[in-house]
Amino acid sequence: MITKKTALITGASAGIGRAYAEQLAALGYDLVVTARREERLRELATTLSDRHRTHVRILACDLADPGSPAHLFEQTHREGIAIDYLVNNAGYGLPGAYAVTRWQDQRDFLNVMVHAVAELTHRFLPPMVERGQGRIVNVASLAGLLPGSRGNTLYSAVKAFMIKMSESLALELAGSDVNVTAVCPGFTYSEFHDVSGTRDKVSKLPKMMWMGADEVVRESIAAAERGDAVFVNGRVNRALSSFVRLLPPSVALGMMGRSSSRFRRDP
Fold first, then answer.
1. Collapsing DSSP states into helix, strand and coil, what is residue 34?
2. What is the DSSP string of 148-198?
């Protein structure tokens, strides 16, 4: 009997997460999808089940709750679902200057973007190692490779964390068939900027700066299969990240400070 592999995708209800669900289903994976909006997950499950004859398990939860990662692991374990492909995609932006935001909001942000990523990886990685095969994709950002910017204070920091974590795990797992990859998209057509309140600002950026979620995911899946520890999506983004690395840190930080108002909501 041939057993299908299963992918767990966080933040699967929209944007890059939904594109991962669609493309991994097309590749033959069964899915476990999670996000806060259960009604969207149900619509996604119906669509993918009809289109690809894949089984989609819905586990709606809020990763801002520190108990959610353990709940996801325990539920899949209880149901006998082995996760072969983990996509840590859930995330959002938290606009405003750090000093005027509420700590509760920053704490929830860190729970989603750092705690959940680290714990889900820590829980699902050992079974992958034991089986000798697996993929973990951490959806980071070009922002994690660039200097920090005004507003959305912790966003670049948590994306840099995801990148460094992925690099370290890639070294630890070298020689195995368990690959950990941080993918670093730039501006991507999705709901992200609507939620963060920056849609009007970022819509003024040149079209060459933008990529579609489907394209981002296609490139990212290929990078994970190659075993890339870090992959920057898009030629423009790769050129930008390389250029910034050549600059003195103070110059790069100054450039980011001057450009922040183009894509960050005013504090």
1. strand
2. --SSSTTHHHHHHHHHHHHHHHHHHTTTSSEEEEEEE--EEESSHHHHHT-
How many other CB atoms are there within 10 angstroms of residue 226's CB atom?
Answer: 10
Task: Judge if pTM exceeds 0.85.
Answer: yes
The SS3 of residue 219 is helix
DSSP 83: -
Write the CA distances from 202 to 15, 75, 193, 233, 259, integer angstroms.
Answer: 16, 39, 8, 18, 11
- Tell me, yes or no, if 85 is annotated catalytic: no
Average pLDDT over all residues of the chain = 89
Residues 6+ apart with CB under 8 A from 110: 154, 158
Residue 262, pLDDT above cutoff 70: no
Instruction: Looking at the structure, give the CATH architecture of the domain made up of residues 6-262.
Output: 3-Layer(aba) Sandwich (3.40)
Identified catalytic residue from 20, 29, 85, 155: 155
81-94 pLDDT tens trace: 999 999 999 999 99
